[in-house]
Write a structure and sequence with these properties.
Mean pLDDT of chain A: 95
Distance between the termini of chain B: 30 Å
Largest sheet of chain A: 7 strands, antiparallel
Radius of gyration of chain A: 18 Å
Low-confidence stretches of chain B: none
Number of helices of chain B: 9
CATH topology of the largest domain in chain A: Rossmann fold
Radius of gyration of chain B: 18 Å
Mean pLDDT of chain B: 96
Oligomer: heterodimer
CATH architecture of the largest domain in chain A: 3-Layer(aba) Sandwich
Strand content of chain A: 25-35%
Shape of chain B: globular
Order of helices and strands of chain A: EEEEEEHEEHEHEEEHEEEEH
Number of domains of chain A: 2
CATH class of the largest domain in chain A: Alpha Beta
Helix content of chain A: 10-25%
Structural class of chain B: alpha/beta
Distance between the termini of chain A: 30 Å
Low-confidence stretches of chain A: none
Number of strands of chain B: 16
Largest interface: A-B, 29 and 35 residues
Strand content of chain B: 15-25%
Shape of chain A: globular
CATH topology of chain B: TIM Barrel
Number of strands of chain A: 16
CATH class of chain B: Alpha Beta
CATH architecture of chain B: Alpha-Beta Barrel
Strand order of the largest sheet of chain A: 4-3-7-1-2-6-5
CATH superfamily of chain B: Aldolase class I
Helix content of chain B: 25-40%
């Protein structure tokens, strides 16, 4: 199904600082929100910031159709996101959305979501969506350190949450892929959805392949347009170079040749 | 009634605003954002003789007031274009112009010949200026004799309006422009991207997989304007100008420098409806200055 893409000025409803590097931005749409799917993203225009020329892509973190709002989880990485971190209630933000494909609806109830750092962003929306389809997933999330562990109470509403931190200050110490729930001889999952740093997704994909588990990852290649015309964000797939912004950002790891 | 239409080599454009190849896909990607019938024309993504995968990722680097790309002419080849893409875009209510690229003169000629048979394609834009391919591309656009040769070869087979897109990566743009005019081109489009590079100081690595790429966006506008002005004053064929146009004022500057029409490129990535806004902005400018024909602006730079 084609969802119409739109360019729109949205209003900042709130800007919640989670920690030094992360914040949540709630945006109110001027018209009823289009249907949005987990895995889809938005392209944000950062105004009045001379060094940010292109839009910035962000996954949709949570959607509230009743309030006509949705939420972005943003990590401050450079000038654009730093600028966005200063937005206040009532400020306007120009977006192109919704963009990209989405995670597929699983044919099993044995689902694991794996997120690392800011890569958890689309997984909250996905877990909400899975709940609506009577699936309560396991959710494994990895952070640098305790200070960055956030929104666990919200994830817990939708699934069983497991935490790993690089320094062991919360949950298990180490990488998500080394978490004890993934170290069993036989894993109780038939589908894994994963988003995070490339190395983490590759490691999770490898583990999934070893256990014969179907795995989808959400890629975040650098892009200029976000709607399929610049051809900058391509990734090699079984069909040649495909656009992460249109054919993705979600790909089955089989199609990416990740083993 | 204000006239916005321009005539370029016998082809009437409803207004001077068109979109640059490689920034507008095949046009239909923009249907959610704008009415394609409101702009003068669309230059679609480069078509080559056979399938090209393009360069490896990463292909893009954001730079001050611009961006670098190294896409490398990714497209599925001329057969695919004729069979799959042409039928789906041919009835757009605007001129569809195909950007023709190749690694050899034979490849340019092959693609150009195929374009003759497409009734709704009134013109081609021969791309002798792509900086992102190892062979051909810019090599044809930086040596005057080769520019003449490729233009002449395409001219021999192509019956409709022949446009040639020039590279700014030359010592004398006028020399190349004259060489292409001599080869039989009807129209010149300039400029393609400027060769550049970006480095990640932390990793000490280039950002693009190809190390170098093509710079576009407002960063190149002054260079593009200068070249349009120089070429406009040196040749007897019309010029289509592009390079960093973000708004109607930019577009008007190109018209004043001598462009008969403009292409908007990188700006489409940031505002996919920008081309329609340019048309409206040009109209507003004409009204404000009490000019009733956009043609009065073309080359009307006051230098006395």
């Amino acid at each position: 199904m084609e969802i119409k893409k739109t360019v729109q000025d949205l209003t900042v409803a709130s800007n919640i600082r989670l920690n030094k590097r992360h914040f949540l931005l709630d945006l109110i749409a001027p018209e009823p929100l289009p249907m949005m799917l987990p895995g889809q993203f938005v392209q944000v225009l950062v105004k009045d910031s001379p060094s940010t020329f292109l839009r910035r892509p962000f996954s949709i973190h949570q959607v509230d159709y009743h309030r006509n709002t949705f939420r972005l989880l943003i990590q401050i990485k450079g000038e654009g996101t730093r600028h966005m971190s200063l937005l206040k209630e009532g400020d306007k933000l120009n977006l192109i959305y919704p963009l990209g494909n989405s995670f597929s609806l699983p044919t099993t109830k044995d689902v694991l979501l794996v997120g690392g750092g800011c890569g958890v962003a689309p997984l909250l929306f996905l877990s909400q969506f899975l709940n609506q389809n009577s699936i309560r997933p396991s959710i494994l999330v990895g952070f640098r350190t305790q200070e960055e562990v956030s929104e666990i109470d919200i994830y817990s509403k939708f699934g069983d949450v497991y935490v790993a931190t690089d320094d062991g200050t919360e949950g298990e110490r180490g990488l998500v892929v080394d978490h004890s729930i993934l170290q069993k001889e036989s894993l109780p999952f038939k589908k894994i959805y994963c988003c995070g740093p490339d190395a983490m997704m590759q490691a999770v994909a490898k583990l999934a392949a070893i256990h014969g588990i179907d795995c989808e990852v959400s890629l975040e290649n650098s892009m200029a347009c976000g709607f399929g015309v610049c051809l900058c964000c391509i990734t090699p797939t079984d069909k040649g170079n495909e656009r992460v912004c249109v054919e993705g950002p979600v790909f089955n790891t089989r199609r990416l040749g990740w083993k | 009634m204000t006239n916005l239409s321009v005539n370029i080599a016998g082809l009437t454009f409803k207004n001077p605003v068109t979109t640059a190849s490689g920034t507008f896909g095949y046009g239909d990607e923009f249907k959610d954002f704008m009415d394609l019938g409101k702009i003068g024309g669309i230059f679609v993504k480069a078509v080559t003789g056979s399938n090209r995968d393009g360069n490896a990722y990463p292909r893009m680097a954001e730079t001050p007031s611009g961006m670098l790309n190294s896409v490398g002419l990714q497209n599925k080849g001329v057969d695919h274009f004729v069979r799959e893409i042409y039928p789906r875009i041919k009835d757009f209510d605007t001129h569809i112009i195909v950007n023709v690229s190749g690694s050899t003169i034979e490849e340019y000629v092959e693609v150009a010949e195929r374009m003759n048979e497409l009734e709704k394609i009134p013109a081609i834009e021969v791309n002798i200026s792509c900086p992102n391919v190892k062979q051909g591309g810019m090599a044809f656009g930086t040596v005057p004799a080769m520019s003449t040769e490729v233009t002449r070869a395409v001219r021999e087979v192509y019956k409709k309006v022949l446009m040639v897109k020039l590279s700014p990566n030359v010592t004398s743009i006028v020399e190349i422009a004259k060489a292409v005019e001599e080869g039989g081109a009807d129209v010149l489009t300039l400029v393609n991207t400027l060769l550049g590079m970006a480095i990640d100081a932390d990793s000490r690595r280039p950002i693009l997989s190809t190390i170098m790429g093509g710079l576009s966006g407002p960063a190149i506008k002054p260079v593009a304007l200068r070249m349009v002005w120089q070429v406009h004053n040196a040749v007897n064929i019309p010029v289509i100008g592009l390079g960093g146009i973000m708004n109607a004022t930019d577009a008007i500057e190109f018209l004043l420098a001598g462009a008969s029409a403009i292409q908007v490129g990188t700006a489409n990535f940031i505002d996919p409806a920008v081309s329609v806004k340019l048309v409206e902005g040009i109209e507003a400018y004409l009204a404000k200055h009490r000019i009733n024909d956009v043609n009065e602006l073309i080359g009307a730079l006051r230098t006395e």
